[in-house]
Design a protein that fits this description.
The chain contains 19 helices and 19 strands. The chain is α/β, with parallel strands linked by helices and 528 residues long. Helix 8 links the parallel strand 11 and strand 12.
Length: 528
């Protein structure tokens, strides 16, 4: 058993792959051995999490997940008796014994024989609750005792240890099933009490994206001694720190600014266009690109018609401003990494045909994505880029992804991995679907899920900073689509890591400092 702390590249397996691994393990092990290992692992972790507990509630459901909970309860009860502890283990079991799977039935009999206390309702108070209601089986509407117990688990201020995954969480997608006590949004009903999840046999994608991160809390993993066979496909990769260990590549001493590549940022609609000025978005992207290591950064602001044009940035005077219509020649667009769309507004659409047909490495964000979603000709140009061997990165949030897919954001959120993979395949591009557990998909590559980041990033401009960081990561020539994916994933990882460590600096320790995009851009560092 080990804690998952984002220090390595972790393979993730969906329900079908996990079932295949489970069946292969059961074929080589004695009857009930896998459940015995799972229940023992749960009991050990429960004891470590609450060593002085006086009451542990074990909520067991009607399947093998409930069987794991019963085995855990039996061990906790036995250890308490052996040590003379005052610990009281209370089991609630919502199941018809005659309909239990064989392993779960055996676990029930063993717990009863051991003298474990079974109750029809949870204890009034518990120092730790174990959620063993539902596992990776089909998600179904909950009612009766199961719904009531799950509502209590989700809202408990006491620590909760989830067996394999939080009950009602879709193992493949990170969607969380609502129950009648939740209203329409199960995430709203969940309190920020301590949460732990012991993922068994495999790590599942749904734990790390969508609502999975909030529901799961701290994730632990025990493979139960069963290794996946070589022919079991990996569903996705959790792109932990080890995947980016070599990101800060050393450069020759005789390097010059051209060695670090150029970034061109096109966006920042001027206020004269339609009364909505968004110059700051492009400037944020440009600052981030500069601090992330680009040798030179050119900012092409869409300020045509403005009485006064932006000609320099007092925060980053190193930025070079160009009129995009005349100051960005084709040779520059060919050799540079181009970031387009940040604050682009309605003005960006006119720039897209040229950029799509000229830029060999192109990051499309925000209004550039919205313009493409509305224009079939732009979509055709975008798709053609893959056939030319050019690198394209799309960085949508869920609503922008929905526009690209011709659906709505709710549908995107039902299966974030599928949405990102569909966009990547449809447009021949790397798709960075932003959100909790950002999904990074590319054609013919294993999808990545980013483990870093938090709600502090939910503020204006942080997406523009990410676009600039990705542009900088691609500023130097890229040897392959796989290498491009690695660099993009490294930029996404660092973007979230900076948010996770926002309060680590000395000045932040003296008092709370909200994360703002302008400062985030200045903290970016080189990758790849």
């Amino acid at each position: 058993m080990r804690i998952i702390n984002n220090d390595r590249l972790e393979p993730l397996f969906d329900t079908a792959a996990t079932r295949a691994i489970e069946h292969a393990a059961q074929a080589t092990l004695p009857h009930h051995a896998l459940m015995a290992r799972a229940g023992l692992a749960v009991a050990r972790l429960a004891q470590a999490l609450a060593p002085h507990a006086r009451c542990i509630w074990v909520a067991c459901g009607p399947g093998n997940n409930g069987g794991d909970g019963l085995v855990a309860a039996m061990h906790l009860h036995a250890w308490a008796r052996q040590s003379g502890s005052a610990l009281r283990v209370v089991v609630t079991h919502a199941a018809d014994p005659a309909r239990l799977p064989p392993d779960a039935r055996q676990a029930l009999v063993a717990a009863q024989v051991a003298g474990v206390a079974f109750h029809s309702s949870p204890p009034d108070e518990a120092d730790l609750a174990i959620d063993a209601l539902l596992g990776i089986g089909a998600i179904r509407p909950l009612r009766g005792p199961l719904a009531a117990w799950l509502a209590r688990l989700r809202t408990s201020a006491a620590p909760v240890l989830c067996v394999d995954l939080p009950s009602g969480l879709h193992a493949d997608t990170g969607g969380l099933t609502a129950i009648e006590h939740d209203g329409n949004d199960p995430a709203v009903a969940m309190r920020p009490g301590p949460r732990h999840t012991l993922s068994l046999l495999t790590l599942k994608p749904g734990l790390f994206t969508g609502q999975g991160r909030d529901a799961s809390g701290q994730i632990w993993f025990d493979d139960l001694g069963a290794m996946p066979a070589a022919d079991v496909p990996v569903t996705a990769l959790l792109a932990g720190r080890a995947a980016h260990a070599g990101a800060k590549a050393s450069m020759p001493h005789a390097s010059h600014k051209g060695s670090f590549g150029d970034v061109v940022v096109v966006g920042g609609q001027g206020v004269a266009t339609n009364g909505a000025g968004m110059t700051g978005a492009a400037v944020l992207a440009a600052r981030a690109a500069l601090h992330a290591g680009a040798g030179r950064v050119f900012a092409g602001l869409l300020e045509a018609g403005s009485q006064s044009e932006t000609t320099w940035d007092p925060v980053c005077p190193e930025l070079m401003f160009r009129r995009p219509e005349t100051g960005l020649d084709t040779a520059l667009l060919r050799r540079a990494s181009v970031v387009c769309g940040c604050g682009g507004g309605a003005a960006v659409a006119a720039m897209l045909p040229r950029l799509l047909s000229s830029a060999t490495r192109l990051v499309l964000d925000a209004d550039a994505l919205n313009a493409i979603a509305q224009d079939a000709n732009l979509q055709a140009q975008l798709t053609h880029r893959q056939r030319r061997g050019w690198i394209t990165v799309l960085t949508p949030h869920p609503l922008e992804a929905a526009r690209l897919l011709g659906t709505d954001a709710a549908q995107v959120m039902i299966d974030r991995l599928q949405a990102a993979q569909t966009i990547a395949a449809q447009f021949g591009a790397i798709c960075v679907l932003k959100g909790s557990g950002t999904v990074i998909a590319a054609p013919n590559e294993t999808t990545r899920i980013n483990p870093t980041g938090n709600a502090a990033l939910a503020t204006a401009g942080t997406g523009d900073v990410l676009a600039g960081m990705i542009g900088s990561a691609l500023a130097r020539p890229v040897s392959s689509s796989g290498a491009a994916l690695d660099r993009v994933a490294s930029a996404v990882f660092q973007h979230g890591w900076l948010a996770d460590h926002w309060g680590d600096s000395e000045e932040s320790k003296t008092g709370h400092r909200a994360l703002v995009a302008g400062e985030l851009a200045l903290r970016a560092r080189p990758v790849g």
